[in-house]
Amino acid sequence: MSCSDNDADKAKANAKAACPSNLSNPVSTQLPSDVPSPSGTAYDYSNQGKTQVWYFALDGSPDQLPSLRDGYDSQLTGKGYKIEGTDQEEGAEAESDFSGPHEGTTNFRPLCTGKVVLRLKLTS
Length: 124
What we know:
Blueprint (H helix, E strand, L loop, with lengths): L4 H11 L25 E8 L2 E9 L5 H14 L3 E8 L3 E7 L4 E9 L2 E8 L2
Antiparallel strand pairs: 1-2, 2-6, 3-4, 4-5, 5-6
């Protein structure tokens, strides 16, 4: 699950970029009630078959990616989920795989100045 040098360079560039204007426009599709809601705004959503993906804009910086992931993983375990594994690339991304009422993954990456994106993917 590691990212390439190109991805790391892109993440560092994103961390200094201006934020897109759509971050404050919440999506209409909400998370299932048995999935904890992160502390940010879901500004993008897509689905393909059973797979559903939300993008949340969270306050944070590249050096906070592992702690943001760990904090959300704690919310997941509090709702009965099991963290199956984690991975991180310093300053570029932090990820986890989980199972429970739903299976899925989290991916935290720099989004723009002062913001981190959480991609929350549910595969079941």
